Structures are given as structure tokens and as C-alpha cells.
Amino acid sequence: MTDQAPRSGGTRSHRRPKGEQLMVPRAEFRSYYGRPVIKAPSWAARDIAGYFFLGGLAGAGSVLAAGAQLTGRPTLAAAMKVSSLAAVSLSAAALINDLGRPARFAHMLRVLKPTSPMSVGSWLLGGYGPAAGAAALCAVTGRLPRAGAAATAAAAVLGPAVATYTAVLAADTAVPAWHGAHRELPYLFAASATAAASGMALVLAPVQESAPARCAAVLAAVADSVAVRAAERRLGMVAETYREGRAGRLLRGAQVLIGGGAAMAALGGRRRRAAAVAGGLALLAGSACTRFGVFAAGLASAEDPAYTVLPQRAAQGLLPSQ
Q1: Helices vs strands, H then E, count in the chain
Q2: Considering only CA atoms, which of 29, 297, 30, 25 is closest in space to residue 176?
Q3: How confident is the model at residue 67 (pLDDT cuts 50, 70, 90)?
Q4: How far is the CA of 206 from the CAs of 7, 135, 210, 275, in angstroms?
Q5: What does pTM read for this prediction?
Q6: What pLDDT score was predicted for residue 318?
Q7: Distance, CA of 317 to CA of 311 (rounded, Å)
């Protein structure tokens, strides 16, 4: 056993019969020979957290593009289609870089396993990427408008799943900060994706067409704040990983950037192009901070054995509830 400091919640609460005296001190959990109980993911933050962010930007952007096309906002629609194609291309590059070589991504498409988030996500990307590409190509060239409309609709249908399946992928691991927040994480990723897409729309589209993006930014800011707080309540002591260290700094920065960006877009983006662009950039940066913050919280929780063992003991009634 090592000299790692015990957590404040580490005092046991066994009930013993009256008159029974302890012959030895109660055991305090410290660690398993100083090593984490679970193995922390070996993923690089640049690749996987970036993959989370870019996938969200692409998926939510396709939904915004389809809405813009239906409501007669051609510049916004075209800009978001091109943005989604660029984002999903970069996200695929980040994933392949993490896998090591492109053939490994192709191998993931050899089977479809509905119970595996990784398998389902690979097929989602395999279907969404071509649809987003066709929608962008038709929008830029002006050719095949019917095919472009069909591709836009397909990308919009698959977009929400592309934006949020990574939350399921992370929550399906044994990493305490991700698995413990499995109910809230998809909502947090959806809010983050909406913030990113609305930010991109505010940067690229003229203010005359950016009203849906401003509304989406405000909704995303509210949803992001609610989802983070709900996740922290459910996580109990593991929520420390969301509040402290690198993850805490990133997530606090995300709250400031997304809230400030949404306010700037709503108040000044209606008339002034500069305010819309500044708000959009803040929303994009805030969304990226959310993804990198959640990623960092997961690594921090995996590296400390207390975050694995103490919540399990509390669930079994061996510790006071957090």
C-alpha cells in the first residue's frame, strides 16, 4: 500500500452490534500498490478530443444547413454544408491518426455490431461522410439540385447521431468520470455541438440570415450549463475531476466562452457583423474547451484509484452517500 492520502469520504459506516469493540483499526482504502485500478485510455487528446469536437461541429452543422435551406437562407445553407464536410473530413483524419493507419478504419466496417458504440459510430461516419460531401459539392457547383437536397436531408438525419454518439462511446468505458455521467453526457455533447455549429454559422453567414444561429446559440448555452451541473450532481465525489486541474480550467472557460458568445450574438449580432463574428468564435472555442475538458476529466478519474473504488463502495452502502 502506498502513502496516497485517503479521501474525505473514505470513512466506513459499518454498523456493529452494541458492545462489540474493534480489535484493529478500520482499514482505509488508499490504492492498489500505488497503481490505478483501471488503465487510463491511451488516446491522445489532440486526436480524440479533437475528433469529438469536429464530429459535433459537422453533425449539428448539417442540421442547421438543412433548416437554412428549407427556410430560404441559401448563403447560410451553403456555408454550413461546406463547413460540415471540412469538419467531418478532419475528424476522420484525427480518428485515423489515432488508429495508426487508414486500413484499420476500413476494417471496422467489416461487421456491424449494434451493441458496440464503436461499430455503430464507424458505420455512422461511413454513411454521413458521403452524404455531407455530396450536399456540399452540389451546393458549391449548383449542379444536381435534387440530389443535393436528398444528400442534405440524409446528412441532417444522421447529423445528430454523429454529434452525440461519441458521448455514448466514452460513457461505455470504465472511466469513472465518463461512465458515471452516461445519462447526461449525450445531452452535454449535443449542447456543445449546437454551440459549435451556431458559432460557425455566425462567423460565415451574413447577419440577415443568421437568426436561427443566434437562437441556437442561446439554447446551447442554457443546455450546456444545465447538462454540466446535472452531470456533476450525479457523479458525486467524481465531479471533482470536472472542477479541478486541467479539466476544471477548461470547463470553466467553456462556460464563460459559450455564455459570453451567446450573449454577444443575441445582443449585438443582429445588427453588427463584428459582434456576430466575435460571438461565433467564442462559441467555437467554448465548444472545443468542453470536449477537451470532458476528455481531461476522464483521464484524471482513471488515474486516481479512489474515483474507481469509493463510488462503488458508496453504491454498496459501505460509505456515506456523497
Answers
A1: 12, 0
A2: 297
A3: very high
A4: 53, 21, 6, 12
A5: 0.84
A6: 62
A7: 10
